[in-house]
């Protein structure tokens, strides 16, 4: 039922893949992976010339001993630019101190081996590419060993490898760089023996990030930092209501600004807007501020939060399309009213608001184009740019730029930001154009975590456990009308709406969950951990309420209620119990402890928080987290992801953590009115504990997010006696 | 347009821009020093923090017409003993994730340690309180500031 898992199954490719090795023009060994896709992206003429190795390479051993490893995904904080090279380098026995990682351009070979498109999402980077990068490393190593064995006239079995050196009998040794040219002429082995976990020397060890120093001295370039000769800067005036169109505009004042080059209307993914192109950002923005635009909003629905709230609450009182049904639907009616809980929840729209505002740079040459985008969805972004410019995707050379966060915001099916950039570049043929969204564009620009309403009726049995659970969820579909709909909408229910609830790991003998996916004129999008953001909140606050009513310890109660097959969750509850016992059972005066656990993207998480109320806000003094993510590839990154991911999850609890609408317009503008968590709001201390495991690794990007907000309000409930069912948490 | 002379990381520079242009855009687009980041443009996130005359300043709201004093940016802060210690502590503690806000975080942390060599948690929350990190790497930011403070003892 989990949406990402479903997507994996449906998209699973049964394509043959094979490796190809060659000598690089500048020397050394290059190992490339080719997939036999119907339309190979390896058109000889369209690829950029400057790189000395082919754009489908994964490993390049340079003559100077440096080993370049290409990362098939965006790096935007999750640490994959370190972890994937670690995996490859471990199997290859490469000298880690000589490893350099690069982000791959868009090309078929870099598509996610499970999803079948080039992307980051569904916490799949390590989960999907672990085996792929291990095999690449092991095969590269085997070719180097074969080259050494040939040179020494010995059997490969007599050789061993360590830190980029092959050792043979009689004290013979050769560095990888010396062997690379010969290795390039060796056949790529069909099958190789992968290491046993006990043989890993990088995988499973805490390894510092490769991109750390460049991000501490200002030298790391992000998409927004791009500077090309002759480049112009573009900003776009977007309609005040989604889908609005330009009726007419007066650009006299705008054009009077020094440095402004062009002002023109462009079509948007939804409606139209006015683009301003200037030499620099500041004149572009000043000119945009001076545009006088008459918008055509006729026939456009004007979303309004208070009306939507009323509509959603009403919908939640009627059954929707069935997402889960087991047991007796009427069981609830047999439970006396005094043993029932009726709970209504509300969740607002949320903006992702990554620190680096959205941007895309495009240069159009007529018969080809080049693009530089911090992209989670290279395949869609490249295809969209091509479509706007009348080019095939492979005619668009697409560079993946480092991104300053994303959280889903750079994985947009309609690719509306690169689309805008391409529309502008089309007009300025030959000139590179960097499209920049301001923070206001971002906060008001849509593609939010959808607003939701839940209504849950629970019947409690004599044992204090829920005997009947009836649940209705209301919220927009993320994928209706898109190519993803066929995979993710089942029985009229978008699985991302119900994930983490319909597939709950708790045992409810009589369980009915239905959903409504209304259509609203607000573009919506996956927001880090997607449906789990609201579903984990509802489930974990209600389970806590049930435990409190039953006068049972929240960990003991959860253990009792979990299905025996929910092994990962059971392991993290045990570990949490052990690791938090020292402080959990004796909170300071005015403090309370809150618990929550949740499994998503195949990773289970349990969390305990120590909370007090300061300045009418929750103060999170500490958190202990237990994680089961299978084999922990880089425990240092995982610790960091969980420490910080909890902080990200606090977004939901912020008083200013909501996007609201009045008369069709977004009421927030910038970080003064849409306020994500600052240092004072996030947990002050987080200790992370990983369940030891050699199971296949699972994701760690999204799973930190869902647990924190229910854990915090469960603690608040102990302090105030109130239950919190409406977010944002405006008052306590 | 007007000509301005400014000193950035000890080097004299001259630019010709509209007087309303914020220092941030002069650094990024005229001087091609992109380590200082744009995050909000209204001094609400701290990604653009630089030191002007030794004071941590939001460069996104400082127009060139009001600029006074030498500027230190993330590209130059490593020349300073405290700056170097903070950068090293950041690397040692593996603080960064996406990294976009960290230039500003480091500039604010250096200003804090210059004024308060042994900051308490409250000092840290107050001085770093306006620096947004959307990845929310705050736990490690706290650790790195304390570690740098120890190193500088």
Q: How does this model look, in words?
A:
- The complex is a heterodimer of chains A (732) and B (153).
- Chain A is an alpha+beta fold and 732 residues long.
- Chain A folds into three domains: 3-216, 2-Layer Sandwich (Aldehyde Oxidoreductase, domain 4), CATH 3.30.365; 223-298 and 358-436, 2-Layer Sandwich (Aldehyde Oxidoreductase, domain 4); 317-350 and 448-720, 2-Layer Sandwich (Aldehyde Oxidoreductase, domain 4).
- Chain A contains 18 helices and 30 strands.
- In chain A, the strands form eight sheets. In chain A, strands 11-12-9-19-16-17-18 form a seven-stranded mixed beta sheet.
- The longest helix of chain A has 28 residues, at 125-152.
- Chain B has 153 residues and is α+β, with helices and mostly antiparallel strands.
- Chain B folds into two domains: 2-72, Beta-grasp domain (Ubiquitin-like (UB roll)), CATH 3.10.20; 77-151, DNA polymerase, domain 1.
- Chain B has five helices and five strands.
- Chain B has helices at residues 23-30, 81-92, 102-115, 121-127, 138-151, and strands at residues 2-8, 11-17, 49-52, 55-58, 71-72.
- In chain B, strands 4-3-5 form a three-stranded antiparallel beta sheet, with helices on one face.
- In chain B, β3 (49-52) and β4 form a beta hairpin.
- In chain B, α2 packs across α3 and α2 (81-92) crosses α5.
- Chain B starts with a strand and ends with a helix.
- The model of chain B has no long low-confidence stretch (mean pLDDT 98).
- At the A-B interface, α5, α7 and α17 of A face α1, α2, α3, α4 and α5 of B.
């Amino acid at each position: 039922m989990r949406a990402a898992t479903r997507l994996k199954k449906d998209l699973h490719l049964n394509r043959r893949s094979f490796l190809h090795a060659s000598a690089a023009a500048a020397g050394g060994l290059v190992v490339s992976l080719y997939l036999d896709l119907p339309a190979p992206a390896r058109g000889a003429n369209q690829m950029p010339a400057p790189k000395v190795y082919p754009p489908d390479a994964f490993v390049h051993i340079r003559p100077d001993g440096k080993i370049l490893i290409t990362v098939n995904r965006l790096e935007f904080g999750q640490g994959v630019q370190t972890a994937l090279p670690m995996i490859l380098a471990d199997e290859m026995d490469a000298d880690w101190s000589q490893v350099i990682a690069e982000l791959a351009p868009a090309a078929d070979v870099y598509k996610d081996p499970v999803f079948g498109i080039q992307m980051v999402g569904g916490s799949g980077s390590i989960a999907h590419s672990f085996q792929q990068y291990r095999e690449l490393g092991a095969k590269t190593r085997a070719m180097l060993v074969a080259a050494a064995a040939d040179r020494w006239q010995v059997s490969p079995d007599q050789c061993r490898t360590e830190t980029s050196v092959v050792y043979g009998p009689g004290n013979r040794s050769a560095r990888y760089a010396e062997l690379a040219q010969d290795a390039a002429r060796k056949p790529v082995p069909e099958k190789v023996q992968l290491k046993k976990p006990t043989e890993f020397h990088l995988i499973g060890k805490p390894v510092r990030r490769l991109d750390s120093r460049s991000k501490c001295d200002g030298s790391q370039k992000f998409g927004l930092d791009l500077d090309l000769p002759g480049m112009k800067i573009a900003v776009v005036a977007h309609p005040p209501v989604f889908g609005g169109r330009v009726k007419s505009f007066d650009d006299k004042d705008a054009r009077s600004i020094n440095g402004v080059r062009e002002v023109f209307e462009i079509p948007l993914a939804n409606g139209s807007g006015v683009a301003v192109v200037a030499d620099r950002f500041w004149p572009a923005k000043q000119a945009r501020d001076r545009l006088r635009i008459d918008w055509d909003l006729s026939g456009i629905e004007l979303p309004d939060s208070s009306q939507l709230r009323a509509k959603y609450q009403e919908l939640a009182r009627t059954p929707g399309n069935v997402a889960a049904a087991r047991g007796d639907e009427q069981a609830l009616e047999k439970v006396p009213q005094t043993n029932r809980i009726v709970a209504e929840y509300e969740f607002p729209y949320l903006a992702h608001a990554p620190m680096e505002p959205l941007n895309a740079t495009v240069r159009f040459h007529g018969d080809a184009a080049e693009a530089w985008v911090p992209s989670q969805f290279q395949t869609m972004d490249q295809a969209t740019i091509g479509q706007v410019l009348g080019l095939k995707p492979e005619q668009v050379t697409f560079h993946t730029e480092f991104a300053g966060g994303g959280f889903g915001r750079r994985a947009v099916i309609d690719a509306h930001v690169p689309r805008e950039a391409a529309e502008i570049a089309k007009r300025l043929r030959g000139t590179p154009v960097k499209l920049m969204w301001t923070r206001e564009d971002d906060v008001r620009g849509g593609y939010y975590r959808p607003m939701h309403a839940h209504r849950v009726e629970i019947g409690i049995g004599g044992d204090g456990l829920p005997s009947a659970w009836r649940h209705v969820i209301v919220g927009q579909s993320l994928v209706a009308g898109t190519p993803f709909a066929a995979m993710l909408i089942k029985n009229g229910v978008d699985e991302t709406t119900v994930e983490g609830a319909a597939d709950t790991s708790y045992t409810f003998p009589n369980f009915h969950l239905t959903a409504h996916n209304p259509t609203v004129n607000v573009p919506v999008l996956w927001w880090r951990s997607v449906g789990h953001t609201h579903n984990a909140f509802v489930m974990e606050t209600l389970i806590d309420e049930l435990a409190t009513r039953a006068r049972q310890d929240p960990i003991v109660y959860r253990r009792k209620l979990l299905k025996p097959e929910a092994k990962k969750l059971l392991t993290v509850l045990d570990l949490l119990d052990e690791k938090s016992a020292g402080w959990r059972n004796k909170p300071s005066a005015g403090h309370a402890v809150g618990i929550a656990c949740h499994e998503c993207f195949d990773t289970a998480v349990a969390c305990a928080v120590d909370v007090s109320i300061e300045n009418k806000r929750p103060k999170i003094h500490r958190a202990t987290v237990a994680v089961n993510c299978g084999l922990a590839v880089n425990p240092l990154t995982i610790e960091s992801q969980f420490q910080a991911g909890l902080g990200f999850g606090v977004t939901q609890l912020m008083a200013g953590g909501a996007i609201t609408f009045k008369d069709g317009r977004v009421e927030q503008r910038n970080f003064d009115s849409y306020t994500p968590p600052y240092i004072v709001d996030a947990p002050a201390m987080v200790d992370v504990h990983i369940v030891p495991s050699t199971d296949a690794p699972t994701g760690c990007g999204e799973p930190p997010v869902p647990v924190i907000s229910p854990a915090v309000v469960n603690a608040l409930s102990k302090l105030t006696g109130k239950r919190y069912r409406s977010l944002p948490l405006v008052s306590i | 347009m007007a000509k301005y002379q400014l000193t950035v990381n000890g080097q004299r520079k001259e630019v010709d821009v509209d007087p309303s242009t914020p220092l941030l855009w002069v650094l990024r687009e005229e001087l091609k020093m992109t380590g200082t980041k744009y995050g909000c443009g209204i001094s609400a996130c701290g990604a653009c923090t630089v030191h002007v005359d030794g004071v941590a300043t939001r460069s996104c709201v400082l127009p060139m017409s009001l600029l006074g004093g030498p500027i230190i940016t993330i590209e130059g802060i490593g020349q300073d003993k405290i700056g170097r210690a903070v950068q090293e502590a950041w690397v040692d503690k593996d603080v960064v994730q996406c990294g976009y806000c960290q230039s500003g975080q480091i500039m604010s942390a250096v200003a804090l340690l210059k004024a308060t060599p042994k900051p308490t948690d409250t000092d840290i929350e107050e001085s770093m309180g306006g620096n947004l990190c959307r990845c929310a790497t705050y736990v490690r930011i706290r650790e790195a500031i304390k570690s740098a403070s120890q190193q500088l003892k």
